[in-house]
Amino acid sequence: MLDLIKKELKLSLHPTAPIFLLLSAMLLIPNYPYYVVFFYTTLGIFFICQNGREVNDINFMLLLPISRNDIVKARMTLAALLECAQILIAVPFAMLRNKILSAPNAAGMDANMALFGLAFIILGIFNIVFFPKYYKNPAKVGMPFILGSTAVFVFILLAEASCFILPFVKDILDTPGMANPLPKLAALLSGALICFLLTITAYKISVKNFKKIDL
Predict the structure, then answer these.
(1) pLDDT in tens, 46-94
(2) pLDDT value for 11
(3) Which of 16, 45, 140, 184 has the fewest beta carbons closer than 10 A?
(4) CA-CA distances (angstroms) from residue 170 to 2, 116, 164?
(5) Which ranges of the chain have pLDDT less than 70?
(6) Measured between alpha carbons, how far apart are the two ends of the chain, in Å?
(7) Residue 185: other Cβ atoms inside 10 A
(8) What is the pTM of this model?
(9) Which of 24, 19, 44, 50 has the alpha carbon at shortest distance from 35?
């Protein structure tokens, strides 16, 4: 399995994916919907799968003495690594943003722990929508991405709207820096757990779908 992950990192990783990780710096933009930063990670995953289709990556993998489970696991592990890297790289920019910009984010959620908790959910939603659909027919990667992106942006709209509508989000979670640390920490941990559960479920469904197709 480790060799497959190395293959994903060395051969399957699209050049745009690491570049998109640097877009974590967008957290320094005043009055910006910061959830959009994490959408770019999903775009990088799409480019990886799209490029894999063009170079017949899956057909090549099926010629190797490995199971379909491992093919799915390797690709989803690469996606999870990129998603975690995006979160980790974004943290210093969030801290810098809070240090140099004292004004709250008028466009929605501030750069704080709750933002990252909801970002985890965004990534989990993309995984549960995109990968099971993608592994029904890896030759058609566009529609799974459209569906995944639609689900992501619906959640982003709801999350940002909650900052203006729901008192708990507006007064407790959507506050600068380390104000109200316990609720924000709970949001962060809950988001990470939801993302993990959604991704594991996505993997199981994807494996079932991938085993059904004739390649």
Answers:
(1) 999 999 899 888 888 888 888 899 999 999 999 999 999 999 999 999 9
(2) 81
(3) 140
(4) 44, 16, 6
(5) 215
(6) 22
(7) 14
(8) 0.93
(9) 24
Residue reference for tokens 């959910």: 121
What single-letter amino acid sits at 56?
N
Q: 65, exposed or middle or buried, with CB in 10 Å at 0-12, 13-18, 19+?
A: exposed
Give the residue carrying structure tokens 């689900």: 151
pLDDT of 92 reads 95
As a whole number, the mean pLDDT across the chain is 92
Structure-block tokens of residue 63: 């010629």
Q: What is the DSSP string of 53-82?
A: HHTTHHHHHHTSS--HHHHHHHHHHHHHHH
Q: Token pair of 143, please?
A: 């529609």
Other CB atoms within a 10 A radius of the CB of residue 165 amount to 10
Please name the residue that has the structure tokens 């959640």. 155
